[in-house]
Amino acid sequence: MATKRTFPPLYVSSGDKATDQLAFFHILEKLKTQKRTGWVDHGIPQAESISDHMYRMAVLAMCTSDEKLDVARCVMLAVVHDLAEAQVGDITPREGISKPEKRQLEEEAMNNFVHEMLHDSPPAKRILNLWKEYEMQETPEARFVKDLDRFEMASQAFEYERVNSDKDLQTFFDSSVPHIRHEEVAQWGDSLLKERARSMGDNL
C-alpha cells in the first residue's frame, strides 16, 4: 500500500511584501526539484521534474499553426497549469486522494500564493485567473493546452522507453493520445505513435 502523502503547512504572511514575494519566488524552486510521480512510480531513473514538463509544453504552444488561438496566452497557461504542485506535489490517482480533495488542495495552494505571498497584486491575480481558466477548460486556449499536456506526457513516455528497454509505458499512451481533440495536436500524437511503432518493430 502506498504511503499517504503529507503536505507542508501553508505559508503565513510576514506582513512585509518584499519578504513574502521572495517566499513565492523560492517555492517555485520545488517545481524544478520535484520529480513527476508517474515516472518515479514506474522506476524511471532521472525522471523529469514538474517544471521540465511545463517548459516543453510552453514551447509546444509556440509551435502551433492555429491562428485562432492566442498563442501568448497558451504559453502562460502552460507555465502556470501545474503551479499548485509547488505546494502539494504531483498527486496521482493511485494515492487514494479523490479528485475533489485534490482540487481543494490545489485551490488552497493557489490562494495561499496569491493572498499570503503576493498580497493580491495584479500579477498575482493574473496568475490565479490563468490557473482557473485552465482548470475550468472553457476556452479554446485552455483545451488546447490540456491537449499539449497529454501529448507532452506521451512524448516523454516514448523517450523513456527508448532509453529504458525494460520499461513498458503503454498506460501513459492509453491515457493521453486517444483523448486529444485539437486537430493539430492529434496529428502530432499520430506521428508519435507511428514513430513508436517503427521503433518497437526495429527492436523485435
TrEMBL record:
SMART domains: HDc. InterPro entries: HD/PDEase_dom (IPR003607), HD_domain (IPR006674), YfbR/HDDC2 (IPR039356). GO terms for cellular component: cytoplasm. Its cofactor is Mn(2+); Mg(2+); Co(2+). One of its GO terms (molecular function) is 5'-deoxynucleotidase activity. Residues 46-163 form the HD/PDEase domain. Catalyzes the dephosphorylation of the nucleoside 5'-monophosphates deoxyadenosine monophosphate (dAMP), deoxycytidine monophosphate (dCMP), deoxyguanosine monophosphate (dGMP) and deoxythymidine monophosphate (dTMP). Belongs to the HDDC2 family. This is 5'-deoxynucleotidase.
